[in-house]
Amino acid sequence: MELTTKGRYAVMAMADLAGHADEGATALSVVAERQSLPLSYLEQLFVPLRRAGLVESARGRSGGYRLAKPANEISVADVMDAVEEDTRFTRCSHNDPRCSVATPCVTHGLWSALSDATGKFLSSVKLADVVAGGRMSARPVASRGLAFARADGPRTYLDYNATAPLLPEAKAAMIEALDVAGNPSSVHAEGRRARAVIEAARESVARLVGAKSSEIVFTSGASEANTWALSQPWATILTSGIEHDSVLAPARASNAELVMLPIGTDGRLKVEEIAALLASRSFAGPAVIAVQMANNETGVVQPIAEIAELARAHGIKMHIDAVQAAGRIPIDFTALDVDTLAISAHKFGGPKGVGALVNRDHVDLVPVIRGGGQERRRRAGTENVAAIAGFGAAAEVALRSLASIDVVGGLRDKLEAELKRVSPNVVIVGEGALRLANTTAVALPGKLAETLVIRLDLAGIAVSAGSACSSGKVGASHVLEAMGLGPDIAAGTIRVSLGPTTTEDDIAAFLAAWKAIAGTPALAA
Fold first, then answer.
1. Considering 92, 99, 105, 469, which one is annotated as catalytic?
2. pLDDT at res. 472
């Protein structure tokens, strides 16, 4: 018997709460992250779980969910019953002519006994038995940081655009940096050693994007970098509907006039129409164009050099979100002659929680974080030495890996060709445009993206539905809607993103899972 998604995910989430019961209420987003589960699906499951009296919600800063009863009083059967998971092995009913109480089928007794045994077993297993230290725990008490191990077998990771696995070189650099005791702002030997780690990493990051080391300002990530660039006292911000939320949200929150740039159905900014727009009217200054170098969902690469030339000709500043481009296509900040550019370490194998705003030397930005004089008084706060060290090491590897990006592209092309052979009705979004070599955005008409992601996850394949930062939201992709694609495509596209360690076997595993899923009836998420 194979449990359905709702039964399996409900038990996993409840076991997670049981394993962290002493921590109080837990946000579902935390449970989703710890157990690698879709947040939107958990939100649906916790409605019947709360209705059944198995969990209760807590409001406030420490809000979330907690068990309504002790873990040793809630059985696995209770959880499965609450979400209407059916564990019967027979098809017997009162009026089914194939197998009824009056006329049972030949194997009715066998399956009925198995159903009874399964029901008794699930009723006998409490949540306390599943978590660390319990009689059915896959982990000893010492490993309680994760509620329990998933026995999914080998996994295939094809979600590099969400985050790339931490590179061994980055991990080694971080571990070494953790032994550096000094504050990088201190003048003594320990402080100078910490400062040296940061400056070496700054030079590595600068080489990756073709900038001067003095132009690299370390941040907590690209969201902070984008927010910083767009929180300046702009009178006009020109952007597009396909941008990442870390660009759109601060742009919409500003007091500036927001001008949306035209996008084609292939996902590329329309340079000629942008030129006509800039020539047809004047914009209140200071003004900035804020666009991405490559789209996070479709992989479509934008004509940044041409748009930058237009911006300079009209006295408009330019900010680039290069998060998905860094490490996947060459970047020359100096040659582009843009003003600011944002990147994030974890997209190419560095640690999460560190990024940079590349800030041209002559561009003075109003700081968002004030305090000490760190980062040449541009961004206050004691630097995260270990994370920055990992960032620098990952940047060096990413720069070297650009030479083999065609290998990744060959795997991507093979994947797409096979997808179209297996499912002739699939849609490869942006197929006719220049794209990142690692990215495929594919829609299967009649399938919801979240359903595909869940089904693939159960098959051991990790992919995304749109941006990982927004994957917990239910609804169509704003990127695909901005491209003018229909609702079936906008709500049904998944993103498959490859990396330097992706193999032929990974592609084969994805295609095998896809073939099984593509032939099944459409399901609701």
1. 469
2. 45
Q: Give the total residue count for the chain.
A: 525
Pair type for strands 287-292 and 216-219 = unpaired
| Residues 39-52 pLDDT 10s | 888 888 899 999 99
**pLDDT tens readout for residues 266-280:** 999 999 999 999 999
* Both tokens assigned to 80: 């499965």
| Whole-angstrom Cα Rg for the chain | 26
Contact between 361 and 215 (Cβ < 8 Å): yes
Tell me how far the alpha carbon of residue 124 is from its chain's centroid.
Answer: 38
In this model, does residue 73 exceed pLDDT 60? yes
The C-alpha angle with vertex 457 and arms to 455 and 462, in degrees rounded to 5, equals 130
Q: Where are the beta strands (DSSP E) in 274-425?
A: 287-292, 317-321, 340-344, 355-359
Give the Cβ contact number of residue 194 at 10 Å: 23
pLDDT of residue 451: 86
Q: Is the pTM of this model over 0.90?
A: no
Assess whether 469 carries a catalytic annotation: yes
The Cα–Cα gap between 108 and 391 comes to 61
How far is it, in rounded angstroms, from Cα 467 to Cα 246? Answer: 11
pLDDT in tens, 349-406: 999 999 999 999 989 999 999 998 899 899 999 999 999 999 999 999 999 999 999 9
Query: How many Å apart are CA 344 and CA 248, to the nearest integer?
Result: 17
Which residues, in sequence order, are CB contacts of 318 under 8 Å at separation 6+?
Answer: 288, 289, 290, 307, 308, 311, 312, 338, 339, 340
According to DSSP, the residues that pair with 238 across neighbouring strands are 259, 289
**Burial of 197 from C-beta contacts in 10 A (0-12 / 13-18 / 19+):** buried
